[in-house]
């Protein structure tokens, strides 16, 4: 059975509302759900009345953002993009989707794939995901002009936009599940490389590397945003938790891969990117395209792929979360990150002191 997708129940039954197209991106919707914010209050004046259903079609197909819509509408649109990606993913998780219907009798083994499906490896899924990324860029472009008007001040939609890349471009369920199981000792540290979750992470870093690095950029800027422009919103701790785990998974896994591949940098200049601050587009493109040898620096951590980078990222996450005290969930996240940091720190001691360095317990 496919697992319950993260976004299925979010946003007041979005699934049903989207299907029958009864969310209208109008002032009335805005006033019901966000009674007291200034920017939303401004939207009350907006005259647009178009369904979310139609707005999603427009942004995917016409690459156009419905004009005069509110920030809240933009957030709904992000969730609608998730929803569509979930539908596409769900379809491809079913083996029959790979079958070309025919009147001929065929054998099961040859007609449909067996074993688990890796979505980013399916060309059609990948195209959908690229389109979703384009839509997010359109929304981000609108957000950037709002930022410019506010003299650099980032509004809450920006955090949704960063986090959306983490949701769409990382195996975040696997990362979160592995981290939580390790922290709660449901999986022994020495066995993590044998878990299915680890295989997903490894595949992501190796074979989905461009999207992985794009996600890393957004993980870094998630931290930047929350440190400076926190509004104590309920989703901030969750976004930080996800961002920190993403940086940890990428840094830790990438280090393991580098240890074995010995690939030395044919130094692409520049060779460093600061992940936790906004950087110019060219540098971002360079990092995405050929960043495997570039140093991804996070302030207070240094290179996230260095030998103690992954541990420091986790500790930095605890620090950031301890500033987000409005919501009790921060404490739970901190507990998990702390336990994980302990495990990772023992591992780097082991890695520096012996041949059995890859964290595997080879039961002798
Ligand atoms: C928006 O349009 C829909 C359908 O045409 C209509 O039912 C709804 O009342 C309209 N809402 C507003 C606020 O004008
Ligand atoms: C928005 O601004 C950030 C930071 O300056 C930049 O990296 C990003 O490419 C911009 N996005 C769009 C879609 O213009
Ligand atoms: C990378 O980050 C570390 C830790 O914050 C810092 O000490 C170092 O100077 C940074 N490197 C560069 C080149 O800025």
Q: What is this entry, summarized?
A:
This protein is mainly α.
Written account of the structure:
- The chain crosses the membrane at residues 12-33.
- One of its GO terms (molecular function) is metal ion binding.
- Keywords: Membrane, Metal-binding, Nucleus, Transcription, Transcription regulation, Transmembrane, Transmembrane helix, Zinc.
- It comes from Aspergillus sclerotialis.
- This protein is mostly helical and 364 residues long.
- It folds into 2 domains: 1-95 and 116-153, no CATH class; 155-261 and 269-353, no CATH class.
- 60% of the residues lie in helices and 2% in strands.
- It is built from 15 helices and 3 strands.
- The protein has helices at 10-19, 27-33, 38-43, 52-62, 71-92, 108-111, 123-149, 157-169, 172-183, 196-207, 209-229, 236-261, 281-290, 309-322, 329-352; strands spanning 272-274, 295-298, 302-303.
- The protein has a 3-stranded mixed beta sheet with strand order 1-2-3, with helices on one face.
- The chain is globular, with a radius of gyration of 22 Å.
- The two termini are 37 Å apart.
- The model is unreliable at 1-13, 27-38 and 354-364 (pLDDT under 50).
- One 2-acetamido-2-deoxy-beta-D-glucopyranose (NAG) is lined by residues 272, 297, 299-302.
């Amino acid at each position: 059975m496919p697992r319950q997708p993260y976004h299925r129940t979010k946003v007041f039954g979005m699934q049903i509302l989207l299907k029958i197209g009864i969310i209208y991106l109008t002032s009335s919707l805005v006033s019901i759900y966000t009674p007291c914010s200034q920017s939303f209050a401004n939207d009350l004046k907006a005259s647009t009345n178009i369904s979310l259903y139609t707005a999603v079609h427009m942004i995917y197909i016409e690459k156009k953002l419905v004009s005069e819509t509110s920030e809240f509408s933009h957030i709904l649109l992000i969730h609608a993009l998730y929803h569509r990606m979930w539908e596409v993913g769900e379809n491809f998780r079913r083996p029959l989707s790979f079958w070309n219907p025919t009147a001929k009798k065929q054998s099961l083994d040859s007609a449909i794939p067996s074993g688990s499906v890796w979505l980013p490896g399916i060309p059609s899924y990948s195209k959908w995901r690229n389109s979703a990324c384009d839509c997010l860029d359109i929304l981000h472009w609108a957000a950037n002009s709002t930022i410019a008007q506010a003299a650099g001040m980032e509004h809450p939609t920006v955090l949704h936009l960063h986090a959306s890349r983490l949701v769409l471009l990382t195996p975040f369920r696997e990362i979160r599940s592995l981290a939580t199981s390790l922290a709660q000792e449901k999986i022994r540290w020495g066995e993590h490389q044998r878990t299915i979750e680890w295989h997903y992470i490894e595949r992501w870093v190796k074979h989905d590397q461009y999207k992985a690095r794009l996600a890393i950029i957004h993980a870094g800027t998630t931290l930047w945003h929350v440190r400076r422009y926190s509004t104590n919103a309920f989703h901030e701790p969750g976004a930080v938790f996800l961002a920190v785990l993403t940086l940890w998974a990428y840094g830790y896994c990438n280090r393991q891969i580098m240890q074995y591949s010995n690939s030395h940098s044919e130094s692409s200049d520049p060779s460093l990117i600061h992940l936790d601050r906004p950087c110019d587009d060219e540098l971002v493109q360079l990092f995405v395209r050929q960043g495997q040898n570039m140093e991804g620096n996070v302030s207070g951590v240094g290179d996230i792929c260095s030998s103690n980078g992954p541990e420091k990222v986790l500790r930095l996450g605890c620090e950031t979360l301890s500033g987000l005290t409005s919501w009790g969930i921060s404490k739970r996240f901190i507990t998990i990150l702390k336990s994980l940091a302990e495990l990772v720190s023992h591992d780097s001691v082991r890695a520096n002191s012996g041949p059995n360095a890859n964290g595997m317990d080879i039961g002798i």
